[in-house]
Amino acid sequence: MRKQTTPLSESQIQHDCLAWFRLQYPNLALLLFAVPNGGRRDAKTGARMKYEGVLKGVSDLILLIPKKGYASLCIEMKTPKGVQSEEQRKWQREAERCRNRYVVCRSLSEFKKAVNEYLL
């Protein structure tokens, strides 16, 4: 009998991507970071984060290295069936307007390809 597997969550995909990056590019590990703009929070925490500057739509990961004419690589993580919100599409347009590379990654293999193409 075949074992059923549960699809990976966005969080699990992102974790796997960060783990791979830190092993593959240890000298750049501090320059790839997550943006804490998602997830469930109580009203007080959400209000404080908004007060401190958290913005809806910002990409999940940012690789703060200028390459190939881009200022940085912005990475939006999604599950295979996930879709960008309107806020995410708006933020993508603004990031790209300011010469940032923006990609949507739905798996570790897509992440590896995007990062390697950007860095190499």
Automatic annotation (TrEMBL):
The keyword Nuclease applies. It holds the Pfam family VRR_NUC. The keyword Nuclease applies. Keywords: Hydrolase, Nuclease. InterPro entries: tRNA_endonuc-like_dom_sf, VRR_NUC. Its cofactor is Mg(2+). SMART domains: VRR_NUC (SM00990). Residues 8-109 form the VRR-NUC domain. This is VRR-NUC domain-containing protein. It comes from Bacteroides mediterraneensis.
